[in-house]
Amino acid sequence: MRGFILLIMLGVFFTNCKNNKDPEPLPEIADIAGGWKLTEQKYVSGDSTITVDINKAEQKDLFIRYDGVMLYDGSVSCCAVNKYVINGISFNVVPKEDTPPANFICDCMPCDELVITQTGDTMTVVYCNAGTSTYTRVK
User: Fold this and answer.
1) Which of 15, 72, 119, 128 pairs as cysteine with 111 (C-beta 3.0–4.6 A)?
2) Range 62-96 burial, b when 16+ CB lie within 10 A, else e
3) Which stretches of the chain are assigned E, i.e. beta strand?
4) Domain residue spans in the chain?
5) Model confidence at 85, in pLDDT bands (50, 70, 90)?
6) Of 117, 113, 124, whose CA–CA distance to 84 is shortest?
7) How far is the C-alpha of 110 from the C-alpha of 107, rounded, in Å?
8) Under CATH, which number does the domain 23-137 receive?
9) What is the pLDDT of residues 104-129, one digit of tens each?
10) Collapsing DSSP states into helix, strand and coil, what is residue 66?
């Protein structure tokens, strides 16, 4: 009898556990939400376009949260952008929860918006200084 009562109490306990699953991404950013790995980086210097050797460069994993906040290695960028243009459609980033502070030295020029082009598992981000970063989705 005691075993039966214990079994019922365990069943009630486990059915009342909260599901700590991440919230569903906002529909406007559903295609870009998740983890991304840097594969190519280009920037303009004078009259030249420089391509950075990703294998030799220090990389930070990019994660786009359900609310559009970009995190680099788990921290928010010190030059966080509040607007994206994703495949031609504007999206204003409004954090739905606290963002972890930057855990690296800030050396950037803040942009008003990022232009993001995403097709399948490839995403290209164009910055206001004409630099581009290409990412592949982490599965």
Assistant:
1) 128
2) bbbbbbbbbbbeeebbeebbeebebeeeebebeee
3) 34-45, 48-52, 62-64, 70-72, 75-76, 83-86, 89-92, 114-119, 122-126, 132-137
4) 23-137
5) very high
6) 113
7) 10
8) 2.40.128
9) 666 666 788 999 999 999 999 998 87
10) coil
